Predict the 3D structure of the following.
Amino acid sequence: MNVLLGISGGIAAYKGPDLVRRLRKRGLAVRCVLTANGAKLVAPAALAAVSDQPVYHEAFPLDGQIRHIDLARWADCCLVAPASANLLARVALGLADDLLTTLILALEPEKPLWLAPAMNTVMWRKPVVQEHVATLVRRGARLIDPVDGNLACGEQGVGAMADPERIAELVGA
């Protein structure tokens, strides 16, 4: 199975290489797509090394390829981990303003979209975030709920991204 892993701008992006390794251990092929903020939090070179694939981030590369269509066709499913509040909102609204959101919009409806949110507890509990999540789930997205854990701000609460092993287990099932 081909998994397209989108990594958005949340501190949990540092778990990306571990998640790729765990997905590949299950026999899955993985290609990674970074948002601009995701690329500030995890090194594309690390993702390329563990996935054995190029890492994508440009919506309009100079080589003329139509990446969002090519990647959406290659993928059997798309997993966004971490899915930031910003990414959830953009996808719920159908915005396509970078490579990741554009290819999610281009993903064929029968291909699963998995979302593993990660953010501060206060953000996670905001009604607007919950409305976006409910919209996405109603449209068929598969949610991997955040867990209670240590957050980047030093607090503890619900909002930590699920463990990479749990995510790989769900997506690889």
